[in-house]
């Protein structure tokens, strides 16, 4: 019984954290995108406007 409970908890944690990959700390517009900051451009993370959500 303990194994089943532990498995359920592990699955719940994995499912709950998988959506965190889509999180973004900055502000996005209504399309889910934004312009890169100068700091991000210097680090090579992006080059301009980009999306964080799939555009519908």
TrEMBL record:
InterPro entries the record matches: YHYH_dom_bact (IPR047773)
Alphabetic keyword roster: Signal
Entry protein name: YHYH domain-containing protein
Lineage of the organism: Bacteria, Bacillati, Bacillota, Bacilli, Bacillales
Top-level taxon of origin: Bacteria
The keyword Signal appears for this protein: yes
Secretion signal, residue range per the UniProt entry: 1-23
């Amino acid at each position: 019984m303990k194994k089943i409970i532990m498995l359920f908890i592990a699955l719940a944690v994995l499912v709950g954290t998988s959506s965190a990959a889509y999180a973004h700390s900055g502000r996005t517009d209504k399309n889910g995108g934004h312009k890169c900051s100068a700091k991000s451009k210097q680090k090579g993370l992006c080059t301009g406007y980009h999306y964080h959500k799939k555009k519908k």
